[in-house]
Amino acid sequence: MGRKARINQYIEELILEWATWNCRMLEQSCIGFPKMTAESRMRDGMLGNGGSGGSRAPEVMMPRRLATVDLAIRRMPAPCRVALEVRYCQAWDADKKPSGAFWRNLNDAHVWIEAALSLARG
Q1: What percentage of the chain carries pLDDT values higher than 70?
Q2: CA–CA separation, 57 vs 27, rounded Å?
Q3: Residue ranges of the chain with pLDDT lower than 50?
Q4: What are phi and psi of 16, to 5 degrees?
Q5: pLDDT tens-digit profile of 39-64?
Q6: Separation CA 39–CA 6 (nearest Å)
Q7: How far, in Å, CA of 46 to CA of 39, rounded?
Q8: Where does residue 3 fall: left (phi above 0), alpha (psi -120 to 50 degrees), or beta otherwise?
Q9: What is the rounded CA–CA span in Å between residue 111 and residue 115?
């Protein structure tokens, strides 16, 4: 019983860490339309050598310990993934009473991640 609880706690911590990383990456992503076009910068005399502005690509460097978790989440069935995202990536309302299907999908997502981690360890 103690080992099972410890494994579940470890998976819970990994999911929380993944959710924090995932939400931060999406919030800091810079992909979209530029504030100014190249033509408008040329017109205003602001077009330089192109090397000083820095990258506009999002930071996608994932901590290595989360790679297996991320891959498992991307490959799991949609209802399980949605339950995980609702529980960990959105503002969770503790007063709300989710359906039994939600809890089953969330449990299945935990089992899916646990199995992926076991397979990754070999």
Answers
A1: 65
A2: 13
A3: 1, 51-52, 55
A4: -60, -40
A5: 766 676 655 555 445 545 555 677 88
A6: 58
A7: 10
A8: alpha
A9: 6
